[in-house]
Design brief:
Strand order of the largest sheet: 2-3-1-4-12-5
Helix content: 25-40%
Distance between the termini: 50 Å
Strand content: 15-25%
Number of helices: 20
CATH class of the largest domain: Alpha Beta
Number of domains: 3
Shape: globular
CATH topology of the largest domain: Rossmann fold
CATH architecture of the largest domain: 3-Layer(aba) Sandwich
Number of strands: 19
CATH superfamily of the largest domain: von Willebrand factor, type A domain
Length: 569
């Protein structure tokens, strides 16, 4: 009987397609964020019922709901790159023809890591603003729903109040968490006071963080008991759809959605056609996206707690109390073909994202780092964009900010290098790699020793090799083990090894069971990128970042540590 039912269904499907005048079949696979997948599936089935075809060839569409972080890991695997925080995707998860993630930030992050990842289309099909979710009694203490608040207000509360417990879904795995993190970071300001507030906020968020959205939602109070409210989560960046879905379950305490100013990047659900898709499937994908522009799809989005791509809402949309009117939003540029890691949702760029994730990684993930600073004579060169400070001075500022960012789970050491610092040896150990719990003050003081040596040259090769050996010899499992080397010049040590010797020795030492991440940060425009990349490539686990404007060293430093390898797999 089962066979008869299947055959009958197949025959009816064939008849329906035949009636539409198409033959054959183009099979289009679509992976969509779970909250939008049902609406996409309904629209696809309506399109098929109406005779979906590409130049006379019938179209079949298979839609599956996949967590965006899982699919990002699968795309990264296909392009042989890693993406911070997402881990590895199960082998059963394959890259589809069309991917509808919840945010263009996923496309930006992948594009910045894999030059071959250039999806097409990329137009938004839905929208959900990012809000700060609070239990209603807590929100009322902030003046909700009448009082309008900004991210600076939240930041001040996070750094001064001991009663407000904040949390976040890991921003390396959650687009709403990343959007909230970016909004908080931008509200802090770039001066020393802002840096201190940013670090404090990151640590507060990390205390209440969760790897999964459902886990975070469980941390909100589940009763009206005052003690329960006081001990539970008070605030977290989530999507508007998250709040709507949570409240639809009729919890004892509903969540209020606070729409803070300036508005952070909304979840924009880009319709991305993958780079490997052939022309026929690409045409089918275009047809599907056109089907998603029908009014029925807008109503299906509303039922799922989502707005249409232009910010308006369909029939049945249940907006949270205090939500802004569902008026058309400014369309964001698509992160698709032609995007070189540039703008996407709300004008974000890959650099801002990697810096934010770098700060998050420094606070939340344990690591061991040997920081190696160039003190050759050229580090005396003034930096016009830094108010006339020297390269050494801006490096000191970056080092101090980085040290303040590192959590106590880190262990850090400091070396200096030039030429002939200890006899003929070009490097000198200032502080061995030590836990920050006991050595933070000593390490802070060591930064003051980053002073250029008169007539000192750059003993780059010998220093890089010695630092790599040092970290590998003291390697610890379960941590990121890395060398962070800052230099503004080329190797000039006539008494040391040559490049060929360095590269060969690094290749020999490279050990997948004890990986060491070698990161070289070039300062200014006198470094030789090819020289530095030849060094890091030999380790199979390294990267080069160039701060052509030395005033940007702090930003480059955050980008450098946002890529988290150096851990045995």
């Amino acid at each position: 009987m089962a066979i008869v039912v299947v055959l009958a269904g197949t025959w009816l499907g064939y008849q329906r397609l035949a009636d539409s005048g198409c033959t054959g079949s183009v099979r289009l696979t679509v992976a969509a964020a779970p909250e939008v997948a049902p609406a996409v599936e309904q629209a696809a089935q309506r399109w098929i019922t109406d005779g979906a075809n590409v130049n006379g060839t019938c179209v079949a569409v298979n839609v599956s709901g996949v967590n965006p972080a899982t699919m990002a890991a699968a795309v990264a695997r296909e392009h042989k790159v890693g993406l911070t925080g997402v881990g590895s995707a199960p082998q059963s998860v394959t890259v589809p023809d069309v991917w509808i993630a919840d945010s263009s930030t996923w496309l930006l992050r992948l594009r910045s890591e894999a030059s071959g990842f250039v999806p097409t289309d990329g137009k938004s099909i839905a929208r959900s603003p990012v809000v700060v979710a609070m239990p209603e009694p807590v929100a009322q203490n902030f003046g909700w729903p009448d009082k309008k608040l900004g991210w600076k207000d939240l930041l001040a509360t996070m750094t001064k109040s001991s009663t407000v417990r904040t949390g976040i879904v890991d921003p390396t795995r959650d687009a709403a968490g990343l959007s909230g993190l970016l909004a908080l970071a931008s509200s802090a300001g770039a001066d020393a006071t802002g840096q201190k507030a940013r670090v404090s906020a990151l640590r507060a968020l990390a205390t209440g963080s969760s790897a999964l959205r459902d886990d975070l939602l469980q941390k909100f109070p589940r009763s009206l008991d005052a003690a329960d409210i006081a001990q539970s989560l008070s605030a977290a960046p989530l999507s508007e759809e998250d709040v709507i879905a949570f409240n639809a379950e009729r919890p004892p305490i509903k969540l209020a959605a606070l729409y803070l100013e300036p508005q952070p990047a909304a979840l924009d659900y880009p319709f991305a056609v993958m780079p490997e898709v052939d022309l026929q499937k690409s045409a089918a994908a275009t047809g599907l996206r056109q089907a998603l522009q029908q009014s029925a799809f807008k109503s299906a989005l509303a039922t799922a707690g989502l707005r249409a791509a232009d910010g308006t809402a369909g029939n049945g949309f249940s907006a949270p109390v205090g939500a802004p009117a569902a008026t058309p939003a400014t369309a964001a540029p698509a992160a698709s073909e032609g995007s070189q890691g540039g703008t996407a949702a709300a004008g974000l760029d890959a650099g801002a994202i990697t810096q934010a994730l770098g700060g998050w990684a420094a606070v939340t993930l344990p690591g061991r780092a040997l920081a190696v600073f160039d003190i050759s004579g050229s580090m005396k060169t003034p930096v016009p964009s830094a108010g006339g400070r020297t390269r050494a001075q801006v490096t000191q500022i970056a080092a101090a900010q980085g040290l303040a960012l590192f959590d106590d789970k880190w262990a850090v050491g400091v070396w200096l290098f030039s030429t002939e610092l200890v006899g003929k040896r070009p490097w000198r150990e200032i502080v061995p790699i030590s836990p920050l719990t006991s050595a933070r003050a000593q390490l802070q003081a060591s930064i003051g020793q980053i002073r250029p040596k008169d007539n000192g040259d750059t003993g780059l090769y010998d220093t890089a090799l010695a630092a790599y050996r040092n970290v590998q010899d003291s390697w610890e499992g379960g941590r990121v083990n890395s060398v962070l080397l800052f230099t503004d010049g080329k190797n000039e040590n006539k008494d040391g090894i040559n490049r060929t010797q360095l590269v060969n020795e690094l290749k020999r030492l490279s050990d997948p069971k004890r990986p060491v991440r070698l990161v070289i940060i070039g300062i200014g425009n006198e470094v030789d990128r090819r020289e530095l990349e030849a060094i890091t490539a030999a380790t199979k686990d390294g990267d080069v970042f160039i701060a052509e404007d030395p005033a940007r060293i702090s930003e480059i430093f955050l980008e450098a540590i946002s890529s988290r390898s150096g851990v045995a797999r």
